Task: inverse folding
């Protein structure tokens, strides 16, 4: 009887100590595993890109990124981003606004549709565009008649990029706007503001960080998109090659240093994007 | 400005939020819309503001039909339940907002806006707070900023949605008094929504009591409190004891007790319910008349100077609450478990056929 009691008394405390230790172990094991994983799969390849790019010296590196085809690819990539990101911002704000401030039938369907590009493989998205706008596609003969070329030219690349990046801004804004509700906007209106003033002075400032975050993600994807763009571009050097496509071509032609040089440029862009994103996260947390 | 509401109804899908509301709010009055949650009071307030569309009926200000006038043209100041201050703007910018968004022709000069804002800050006793952000203010301060912001556009009508709902008891009472004082000085027609009877009775010139989308009673605080027109109003405006019984020739028979109800002389043998406020009940040691109800002291407790005595009726599973002053309570010297007699000094009888309880 007495021994039983003693045992019972000891057991729980022992258990707690044990549990505490276990939690700590789990934590450290997980941390080391995560770091190992990230170093092997992310950091080493990233460093490797820069090592490879500069393998044959800075001269080769700069020659590779200033060569006309490379410059044209850089220009095209920037053009695509400049056009598709703002369009996405407009669409994203409109969609988030509609979904969070109004009640209507089919809201759930609209939400699913917005996320469709996440679910569909970019290659399929590209193929759909070819089937639709291509020379033998549904709108092909009509487009041919009015002399508009979409597939295998810049408009096709932009449309493909827009398709793939469509959800980014909307997805960032919907939870932000949902959390804000609409009373601040109602307050603005009741104080005599018109719709535009309400948007610029009340809505936009309160969603700006979410919006910027969405824009950055959208921009990163617009610059890096390969699959969909590859299908619609036609790979015309100096004309319809974006940076990722250019990297692929160089690589296939065994110009490894040049390929890695352009790739390093893209990685640099990605790193800058990541930095801005972290800064924004830090800002939003601070507020 | 006089607000006139004629035959206004509102429906959300199958839910009837408001039903045939008719109400006139005279110029300069401070009116409370009082009711439990879901009674439609906030919907009505938002319809007056123009934040909800009006599908049935007419709302007019000074005889001018505003049914289809947009919120930003209505000249109303609206104070939201959770203040809805612009979080990214300073207190100054919040208050100046209504003036800054005016069309260029109507917009006051920058110096004038500044003067106006500081005047308002003075009025709401927040002079040193112009540069603060809403997140740096307490609930009561935010509420006053919201009020100053609404007043900045010099509205003809001030609408307040549960203005003191989110504040603690002491601040609430203070702000209540302050709002009353402010209203006496400014004479803006004001309507506020509340579910707190005390607040409505304390502040308003007139109270509109609402229940399930309908107006139950309109009257001054003393009118609605002293002569409630329906069991709902009676129940909602304070604690109440119910005596179920049969009404016969001016008497309400509750068990073996007969209570006098002179106003119902001509009714014979009908079910009825007597409503008695706890402070209209008297406790006696001895049975002094036929209307004394035997009961056992069950529980006594005090809140400040008021004593509440809960009693269990003899042979019944019903409880009676009596409110006594401290002196009365001390004089009676009651002890728990003791048998006494309770007697209603004042009672209002409703016949359930007329009113659904």
Result:
């Amino acid at each position: 009887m007495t021994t039983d009691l003693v045992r019972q008394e000891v057991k729980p405390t022992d258990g707690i100590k044990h549990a505490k230790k276990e939690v700590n172990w789990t934590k450290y094991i997980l941390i080391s595993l995560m770091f190992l994983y990230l170093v092997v799969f992310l950091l080493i390849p990233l460093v490797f890109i820069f090592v490879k790019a500069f393998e044959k010296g800075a001269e080769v590196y700069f020659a590779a990124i200033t060569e006309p085809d490379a410059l044209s690819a850089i220009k095209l990539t920037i053009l695509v981003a400049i056009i598709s990101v703002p369009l996405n911002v407009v669409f994203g704000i409109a969609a988030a606004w509609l979904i969070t401030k109004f009640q209507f039938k089919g809201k759930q369907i609209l939400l699913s549709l917005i996320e469709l590009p996440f679910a569909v493989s970019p290659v399929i998205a590209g193929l759909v565009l070819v089937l639709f706008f291509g020379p033998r596609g549904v709108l092909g003969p009509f487009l041919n008649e009015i002399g508009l070329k979409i597939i295998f030219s810049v408009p096709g690349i932009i449309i493909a990029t827009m398709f793939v990046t469509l959800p980014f801004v909307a997805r960032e804004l919907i939870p932000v706007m949902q959390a804000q509700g609409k009373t601040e906007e109602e307050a603005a209106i009741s104080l005599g503001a018109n719709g535009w003033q309400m948007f610029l002075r009340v809505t936009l400032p309160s969603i700006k960080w979410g919006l910027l975050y969405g824009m950055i993600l959208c921009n990163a994807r617009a610059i890096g998109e390969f699959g969909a763009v590859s299908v619609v571009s036609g790979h015309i050097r100096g004309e319809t090659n974006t940076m990722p496509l250019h990297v692929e071509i160089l690589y296939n032609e065994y110009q490894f240093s040049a390929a890695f040089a352009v790739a390093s440029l893209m990685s640099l862009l990605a790193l800058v994007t990541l930095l801005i994103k972290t800064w924004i996260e830090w800002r939003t947390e601070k507020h | 400005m006089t607000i006139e509401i004629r035959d206004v109804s509102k429906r959300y899908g199958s839910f009837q939020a408001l039903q045939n509301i008719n109400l006139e709010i005279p110029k300069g009055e401070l009116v409370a819309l009082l009711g439990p949650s879901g009674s439609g009071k906030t919907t009505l307030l938002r319809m007056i503001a123009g934040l909800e569309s009006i599908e049935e009926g007419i709302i007019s200000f000074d005889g001018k039909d505003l049914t289809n006038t947009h919120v930003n043209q209505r000249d109303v100041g609206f104070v939201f339940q959770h203040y809805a201050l612009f979080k990214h703007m300073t207190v100054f910018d919040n208050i100046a907002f209504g003036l800054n968004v005016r069309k260029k022709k109507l917009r006051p000069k920058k110096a004038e806006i500044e003067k106006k804002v500081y005047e308002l800050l003075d009025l709401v006793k927040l002079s040193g707070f112009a540069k603060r952000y809403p997140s740096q203010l307490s609930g009561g301060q935010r509420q006053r900023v919201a009020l100053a912001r609404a007043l900045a556009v010099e509205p003809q009508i001030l609408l307040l949605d549960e203005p003191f709902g989110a504040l603690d008891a002491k601040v609430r009472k203070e702000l209540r008094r302050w709002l009353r004082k402010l209203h006496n000085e400014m004479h803006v027609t004001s309507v506020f929504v509340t579910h707190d009877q005390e607040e409505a009775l304390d502040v308003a010139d007139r109270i509109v009591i609402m229940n399930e989308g309908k107006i139950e009673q309109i009257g001054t605080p003393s009118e609605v409190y002293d002569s409630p027109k329906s069991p709902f109003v009676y129940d909602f405006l304070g604690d109440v004891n119910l005596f179920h019984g049969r009404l016969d020739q001016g008497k309400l028979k509750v068990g073996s007790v007969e209570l006098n109800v002179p106003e119902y002389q001509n009714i014979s043998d009908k079910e009825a319910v007597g409503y008695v406020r706890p402070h209209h009940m008297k406790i006696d040691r001895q049975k002094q008349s036929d209307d004394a109800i035997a009961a056992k002291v069950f529980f006594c407790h005090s809140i400040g100077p008021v004593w509440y005595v809960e009693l269990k009726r003899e042979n019944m599973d019903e409880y009676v609450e009596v409110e006594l002053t401290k002196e009365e309570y001390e004089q009676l010297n009651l002890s728990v478990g003791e048998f006494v007699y309770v007697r209603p000094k004042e009672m209002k009888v409703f016949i359930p056929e007329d009113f659904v309880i």
Q: What stands out?
A: The two ends of chain A are 60 Å apart (CA to CA). Chain A has two domains: 18-53, 57-286.
